[in-house]
Amino acid sequence: MKIHTATLGVVEAAPESFLTLPDGLIGFEEHKEFALLELSDYVPFRWLQSFSDPGLAFPVLDPLAFVASYDPQLSEPDRLALGLETGEKPEIYVVASVEDAGKIVTVNLRAPLVIHPRRRVARQVVLADSRWDIQHPILERARQRTTARASH
After folding, report:
1. Can you give the pTM of this predicted structure?
2. How far is the C-alpha of 133 from the C-alpha of 95, rounded, in Å?
3. pLDDT for the residue 23
4. Which of 7, 4, 32 is nearest to 18 (CA)?
5. Alpha-carbon distance 40 to 12, whole Å?
6. What is the pLDDT of residue 101?
7. How far apart are CA 34 and CA 17, in angstroms?
8. Cα–Cα distance for residue pair 53/51, rounded to 1 Å
9. Terminal CA-to-CA distance of the chain, rounded, Å?
């Protein structure tokens, strides 16, 4: 299916990329249908693109690629709302914020996007765990890792 977007132009979205967010996203509750797009020009980012608003797209990332210790504990009501059964692992993404022409990149670890892998139902979960920052910087840490590898 072709999707017309304001940010990415016309992109192809496969049915397995479609997500339903019954509660929407925080601040965007009226938007319920999205596609999770993986475009080679934007790796490691993916785009959470609204079907109802071509101008509404959020860059998201796999948090484990940047924060190896990230292990959000979902509440039982959140697990039930997603239909996750005991032992079933959700897909988890975090919303990224890119500022200053890409020099500052942060992710919201406190409110991840949690997806039921089979049902393709998702919700943005606000975690009670204060270890996870709302604006966790990742770009500087990525640079530090690259520098450390180069010096060995």
Report:
1. 0.87
2. 12
3. 95
4. 32
5. 12
6. 75
7. 8
8. 6
9. 47
All domains of the chain, ordered by start, with CATH?
Answer: 2-151 (2.30.290.10)
Structure tokens at 44: 């490691």
CA angle 92, 95, 96 (to 5 degrees): 130
How many other C-beta atoms lie within 10 A of the C-beta of residue 80?
A: 11
Query: What stretches in the chain show pLDDT beneath 50?
Result: 145-147, 149
Q: What share of the chain is helix, strand, coil (3-state, %, to 5)?
A: 20, 35, 45
> Measured between alpha carbons, how far is residue 79 from residues 37, 48, 55 in Å?
24, 21, 30
| Amino acid letter, 83 | G
For the record, the structure tokens of 34 come out as 């999205």
Per-residue CA distances from 130 to 64, 107, 111, 134 (Å): 18, 15, 11, 9
